[in-house]
Amino acid sequence: MLRRKMLDKLITWKRKANGREALLVEGARRVGKSTIVEEFGRTQYRSYILIDFARLPRDVRELFENQRDDLDTFFLMLSTYYRTRLVRRESLIIFDEVQQYPPARELIKYLVADGRYDYVETGSLISIKRNVTNIVIPSEERRLSMEPLDFEEFCWAMGEELLADAIRGAFDTFIPLPDVLHKRAMRLWREYMLVGGMPQAVAAYVNHRDFGEADDIKRGILRLYSDDIGKFAGGDAGRVRGIFAQIPGQLSKHEKRFTLASVSTDARMREYDSAFFWLEDARLVNICRNSTDPTVGLGLYADNASFKCYMADTGLLVSQTFADRETTPDDVYRDILFDKLAINEGMFSENAVAQQFRANGRALYFFSRNNREDAARTMKIDFLIVRDYDNAAMKPRISPIEVKSTKRYGTSSLDKFRALYGGKRLGKEYVIHPRQLEADGERIRVPLYMAHCL
Q1: Domain 5-145, what architecture?
Q2: Torsion of CA 79, 80, 84, 89, to 10 degrees
Q3: Which of 9, 97, 127, 282 is deepest in the core (most CB within 10 A)?
């Protein structure tokens, strides 16, 4: 089984919550929610029961419908049906794919108040209207998002735990890795971009080192997502499919902001709001919004009409880019692996960095301004994040970030941004690139494989 950071988060939740709340683990389909939650139950409790609401047996459904007011009978029958002895304060009950049966989610309030056992729910499309209609969302429910594997988890899967530790150590101390380890880490990063972080694809690649096999799995996941859009997106299904199909084309442009004209020449944002919400709620995309005033509290100045739309997993982006072909050509994988790709590799690098930030729980923001009258005020910053700043008593400051996929590049936007907003607003600025770690005053250049450290 793949080692996931989510297990540590679940263990921390168990210790802190101590039965006072349930946990809802959200994430895209096939991201590994059920697997890690079941592992949590198996290793951290004396017993656990997993109720799969995607395949809810009639007897269990009747139990939820008829015994919800008699919890003694409810637990007795549940324990008997699943042939599992429940132990007070030492057992876990898992509601898997809880969005398929919203009344179970509503029952959480009373189960937590009863206090006998711990409860973890898993689900996707949790906020879609059909999944919350006519139920009261329990206040005793804490939410936790689960993303595809980040690069560090990919290193663990590949048996490179020591290299992963060395990468973190180098970032913390600002001491570059030796060249031989830098080259090894960069090769792993390229493998990660190609394979992505969907557990099934990673496991196949770890076992066979075959990009073609991983590509087949990724294409199967993309077909599953397409089916889900048809089943669950309702009247927005056509718009959702149109957006999803256009993501590679949008990211391949120099200005990566999503333009609706690429979907339909007469498209209006108000008509597509619910389609973007569906994609974001399904965790299929990561929306990065333009923050027009770069100060701490980036969301306060987010322009919801100006955004970039990344795919939630970069491996899926690679396969989606060549969706018009039956398989992704082998030479594409080879060229990316050996840094010889003719198409815009920058979109894969930027998407992968966005994926690392989301795995760290960061909301995504960028900065873009076009001033035809004053070139000094025209600039584009790939990402804005908030980090504690050591030269300001560790107070939070804005850190602008540029992502570079090649070793030769310019930084004019960063220079303009510092000149315009320096002083009390900004902290360190980062260039994430393929080269070695290098500190130059307030500008830190970090290798792409250190993006997850930010």
Answers
A1: 3-Layer(aba) Sandwich (3.40)
A2: 20
A3: 282
